[in-house]
Amino acid sequence: VDEQCIRTDTLTEAEKIHTPLIATSEKNCLGLPDMTNESAEAIVAAFIRGDITGALILDPEKVGEVASRVAMLVHPKRKKHGSIPTKHQIAEMAKKCTLCMQCRRACPNDLPVAQAVKLAASGNFSGLDELYDDCLGCGRCESACKQKLPVHTLIVAAAEKQTRDETYCLRTGRGAIQDIEIRKVGGPIVLGEIPGVVAFVGCANFPKGSREVAEMVAEFAKRRYIVCTSGCAAMSAGMYRNDEGKTVYEQFSGAFEAGGVVNVGSCVSNAHIAGAAIKIASIFAKRPLRGNYEEIADYVYNRVGAVGVAWGAMSQKAASIAAGFWRLGIPVIVGPHGTKYRRMLLGRADRDSNWMVHDARTGESVYGGPVPEHLFIAAETKEEAMIMIAKLTMRPNDTSKGRANKLANYIDLHKRHVGGIPADVYRLVRTPADIPLTMKDEVDAHLAEHDWKESAIPDPTLLSRMVHSRKVT
Ligand code: SF4
Ligand code: SF4
Predict the structure, then answer these.
(1) What residue's CA is closest to ligand 2, atom 1?
(2) DSSP run (H or E) holding 294
(3) Which of 42, 89, 401, 452 has the CA that lies 20 to 30 A from 53?
(4) pLDDT higher for 68 or 268?
C-alpha cells in the first residue's frame, strides 16, 4: 500500500473482501507484524492458513514473490465471496433506511444519499447509480449511518454496469521536462506567445466529480496553453471521453509545447513542474541555480505565466505542494473544499501602492500590477476557476502581444461563463497594443468608461540588487 495518501482503515476494508494486505513502507506499517525476516514460504503459508490477514514486508523482492504467490492461492477462495451485493440485497438493506439524513449531512459534497437509498428500497436504483460519478468514495456516509448501512458499497453496487464497463486511458507519467523542451518554449512563454502553463495537480476531493478536471484540461489545451497533470488529477483527466470517444491524452500531444497535455507522473512529480519554471529562469536569464531561490522566484513571479490548479485539494500534502509553488511565484487555485485550509493569499488590485516594482532598467519604482493578482485562492465553480486561471497567467513583464493573447482568453472565458467583459480589464491593459484586436471596440469602450491611462511596461524585479543601473535608492 501507498505511503503518501494513507487510509487508516485499509486493513478493515481489505478483511471485509478477504484480500490479504501487504504493507511495504516503514512510513505506513498499518500496525501489521513485521515479517521481513521470515522466509517467503512461511509468509505465504501464514496467509493461506488464515493466521494473518496482513503483513509488513520491507524487502521489495520478497514483496513481489509473496504477493504473486498469495494472489494465485487465494483466488479460488475469494471467488466464492462476492463483495458487491446483488440488486435484491441492495433493496433489502435499503429498507432499513429511516431517512434520518445523517449520511447527507456527513457527505462533503452534500449528495442526496438518503433519498437515493430510500428509492433503492422500492427497487429503483437510478438514484444511487447517479451518485457514482460525483461520489468521492470517502465513506463518511457509512460512518454516519446509525442503521450501519454500507452506503458507499450500495452506490458502487448500483453502478455495477458502469464500473464493469469503464476503461480509462492515461498517458504514462513522463518525469522531468527536458532542457531541450524548455529551450523550444521558454522564449514563447516569457514573451507571452504561449499564453501560459497550467498544471492540474493534487487530490480527487472534487466538488462535482472528476469530469470537471478533464473539461478544464481540454479547454486550456485547445486554447494552446501548455497543460501539465500529475497524481490523482492526471488520472481524473483520463477518465472522460469526448464525443469521439477520446480522452484528453488521446486528443492532445504529450510534449511540453503549446496545446500539449503532459502527465509528469505521481503527486510528488509536481517537483518537475516547478523544475520547468526554474529551468526557464536558469536557461533564459542565466540565473544561477545554487543557493539562489530568491532571484529565481523573482524571475518566475514577474515573467513566467504559470498557474497551478489543485481542484480537489484536501490533504496537508496538497497544501504544502501549493505552498512550494506560491513561494516560487506561481499562483495556485484550489476547488471549493480548499477553503477548509483557512488560508488564502489574496491581492488587493485597488491598492496601487501594493503593486510597485523596481524597473531593472532605470532603478525607478514603477507600477507593475495587479498581476498575478492572487497567489492562493479558492474558486467555487469550474467556470470561476477557468476565468481565474486565464487571469493569473498574466505577469508584469508580458509583452504587448503576450498580454493581448492572455486578455483575449480571459475576456472570452468571462463572456462565455459569466457574460460581458470582466470589470477589471482596464487595470490589465497597459498600452493600446495590449488590447486584443478582435475585441478592440468593446475594450476601447470599457477603457473610456474607466478613465484609463496608458502606462509603461516595466522590466520588473522585486529585488533592488537586480537593477542594472546604480540609481536605486
Ligand atoms: S462516500 Fe460518496 S456519498 Fe458517501 S459521504 Fe463520501 S462522497 Fe458522499
Ligand atoms: S444515514 Fe443511513 S438510515 Fe439515515 S438516511 Fe442515510 S442511509 Fe438512511
Answers:
(1) 145
(2) helix 293-303
(3) 89
(4) 68
